[in-house]
Write a sequence for this structure.
């Protein structure tokens, strides 16, 4: 419960999501998006993952959890952005990739004025230090690092505000992103 649920809910301690559009990129089994939606039903949630089996499971489980109006999309993050570019107030992700890779996958979804809410573990500050170039190129600015001690380690939500549009050339194909991170 602490590792998955409480960690997921830490996003709510950093931003007011009521009435906002949130996309959970690489949602897997629905963390952090589903717990956030349960705790804040007013958030307009989109769950995005590339594995159809996961998304089919979520579509079955969400009504059983009382979660309504959550959109489930089966697609790769770098492909789905084509029809959703800069249309969300917030993008979040948990346990998907190192921050310099994650930002290229999430920032294009966020509108100017919104933010990427990157959930990271103990290596978060180290990852943040290595992605200054990515932050600048993607139109982001570091706003805050919220730390949440949990079971002897630090979990964190890194808030990166969108201050300029992300150039259309981003995100690149995943193989290119991984081979040559910003």
């Amino acid at each position: 419960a602490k590792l998955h649920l409480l960690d997921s809910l830490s996003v709510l301690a950093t931003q007011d999501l009521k009435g906002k559009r949130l996309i959970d990129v690489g949602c897997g089994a629905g963390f952090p998006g589903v717990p956030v939606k349960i705790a804040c039903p007013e958030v307009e949630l989109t769950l995005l993952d590339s594995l159809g089996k996961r998304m089919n499971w979520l579509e079955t489980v969400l009504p059983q959890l009382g979660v309504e109006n959550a959109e489930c999309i089966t697609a790769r993050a770098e492909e789905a952005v084509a029809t959703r570019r800069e249309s969300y107030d917030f993008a979040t992700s948990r346990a998907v990739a190192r921050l310099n890779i994650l930002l290229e996958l999430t920032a294009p979804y966020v509108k100017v004025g919104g933010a990427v809410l990157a959930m990271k573990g103990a290596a978060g500050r180290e990852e943040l230090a290595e992605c200054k170039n990515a932050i600048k190129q993607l139109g982001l600015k570091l706003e805050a690092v919220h730390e949440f001690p949990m079971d002897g380690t630090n979990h964190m939500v890194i808030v990166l505000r969108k201050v300029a549009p992300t150039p259309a050339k981003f995100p690149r194909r995943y193989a290119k992103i991984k081979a040559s991170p910003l």
